[in-house]
Write a structure and sequence with these properties.
The structure is a single chain. The protein is an alpha/beta fold. It is about 40% helix and about 20% strand. The protein has a nine-stranded mixed sheet with strand order 11-12-10-9-8-7-6-5-13, sandwiched between helices. Strands 1-2-3-4 form a four-stranded mixed sheet.
Length: about 500
């Protein structure tokens, strides 16, 4: 897609691209000329007599439509007014051209509830915030209410944790098979799985060094999250080794939450769940994605709905206090009636957490190569599925406690975590809102240091581990530890 911006006012090109993707999902942006009739946007931005005028001409390669916006900038400032005016004009042109009305309006970021929380913290009432979302950002009423509910429930978690607290993420980037929708750094070939013993040894040494670093910094560890990939791909002895290392490094009885991802039911056994319980795990995630066996086969899950029910019961028998179940609305081949049955089937088990994702086309996912027209799928069935999930959650006593959005999601919809009272996934909130330092070990892991400076401005620094397991194993672990130690020293000040 080609974007041309005329005028000398400050325009955030990335924001403009994100708005265009609401109407043209999957588009790539380039300045090179092409002989094909590709979509185009011409944006004319001008300032005159204290007002900003934006004319947006959006072309799908065949026909075009125009959106016009004109706003005074005295109240909001020049930069924000330019952003709002561009958003109004592009949304008007996009709606005329494609018939699409984005449910979140001009909110294109990952964390729509973040804006709401900031507005609430200035003293605005939920009613006033809802009005701002509707009028200024064009968010539809249902999504505005959802944003407010999520923001309030997030705040109830965030206010319990200060800058002296931290979390630990442990990466196990291996899976039994690769799902067709997945773009995570996870590996499923037998050759790569053969790396697990060596990988686990290195990982445990990194956990030990990270524990020492946390102690030197004087921080209090409040959550641990073992994710992937699929951590329960580890066999019983490997899982014991990992969890015993964690227990040797930290007093897990003092954690507020200790999560072990168990997302693939075909890797869950009674023994693994009992091991998890014995070593202090308080939360697991057993994910069916759908209870439609034909869809499961189509997405490469290699397990059945019966396997999910068995895995869930294994976690229950072991006495794990909080169980999460993930579902995905809008998977290729899934219908509203079949997804509704999945929601009903999972809720009948009364899990403490349910996370409802919306299918997202990732650029490195198999579906992107094997499903022609994947970006052009109609979203009405998915919208009905998401609406049904949120209604059923509310009726069943679940609260929406965290939310995020991704590009190229069917219908530009959201991913929402729901919880029964007292069981909110703490790590999910802490990582989503970036108010909290998270140490991370393993391939693909990202350590995130967070603090506020003397002026009250939040500062964030990220330290990346190598993306792939063989790169992680190849690097010198002592040099890597020194790199992390120096980064922590620079950021927090030498301890």
């Amino acid at each position: 897609m080609k974007i041309r911006i005329n005028g000398d006012l400050p325009v955030n090109r990335y924001y403009i691209q994100s708005l265009c993707m609401l109407f043209f999902p999957g588009e790539k942006f380039s300045d090179k000329e092409s002989e094909t009739n590709e979509p185009r946007l011409e944006l004319n931005v001008a300032k005159s007599d204290g007002r900003i005028r934006v004319d947006a001409v959006l072309n799908d390669g065949i026909s075009s439509e125009t959106g016009i916006s004109e706003l005074e900038f005295a109240a909001n400032g020049l930069e924000r007014t330019v952003k709002l005016a561009c958003g109004y004009a592009i949304c008007e042109a996009g709606k005329k051209l494609t018939g699409v009305t984005p449910s979140f309006g001009m909110l294109v970021g990952i964390r729509p509830a973040k804006l709401v929380r900031e507005l609430l913290m200035t003293g605005k009432t939920p009613f006033a915030v809802r009005k701002i979302l509707r009028k200024e950002y064009l968010v539809n009423p249902k999504k505005a209410t959802l944003c407010i509910d999520v923001a309030q429930n997030e705040q109830a978690v965030l206010e319990r944790y200060g800058m002296d607290t931290c979390s630990l993420y442990i990466s196990i980037p291996f899976c039994p098979t690769r799902c067709a929708y997945c773009s995570f750094v996870s590996y499923s070939t037998e050759r790569l799985k053969s790396l697990i013993p060596e990988y686990l040894g290195r990982l445990c040494r990194d956990i030990e060094r990270t524990a020492q670093r946390i102690k030197r910094l004087g921080m209090r560890l409040v959550t641990i999250y073992i994710g992937g990939g699929t951590p329960t791909i580890l066999d019983d002895d490997q899982l014991k080794l990992l969890l015993s290392t964690v227990n040797a490094c930290f007093d897990v009885s003092k954690l507020d939450e200790f999560t072990l991802e168990s997302g693939r039911p075909d890797t869950v056994t009674d023994e693994k769940m009992m091991i998890a319980k014995a070593f202090g795990v308080t939360r697991v995630s057993v994910n069916p994605q759908t209870l439609n066996d034909n869809i499961l086969d189509n997405i490469g899950r290699r397990h059945t709905s019966a396997d999910f029910f068995a895995a869930f019961e294994s976690a229950r028998r072991a006495g794990i206090g909080t169980i999460n179940c993930d579902l995905i609305a809008g998977l290729p081949g899934e219908s509203y009636p079949s997804f509704s049955k999945s929601i009903d089937g999972v809720l009948a088990l009364e899990p403490e957490n349910v996370t409802v994702h919306t299918f997202c086309v990732k650029k490195s996912a198999e579906f992107r190569q094997t499903e022609p027209g994947i970006y052009r799928r109609k979203s009405r069935e998915t919208e009905k599925s998401v609406d049904y999930s949120q209604l059923r959650m509310k009726i069943s006593g679940y609260l929406p406690y965290y939310m995020y959005r991704q590009k190229n999601t069917v219908g530009n919809l959201e991913n929402v975590g729901f919880t029964l009272e007292g069981h909110a996934g703490i790590y999910n909130v802490l990582i989503m809102e970036e108010n909290h330092t998270i140490f991370a070990v393993g391939a693909g892991a990202v350590t995130k240091f967070v603090k506020y400076n003397d002026a009250g401005i939040k500062q964030i620094e990220r330290v990346f581990e190598p993306k792939y397991p063989f790169e992680y194993l190849r690097q010198n672990e002592f040099d890597d530890d020194l790199r992390l130690e120096q980064a922590a020293g620079r950021f927090f000040g030498e301890k």
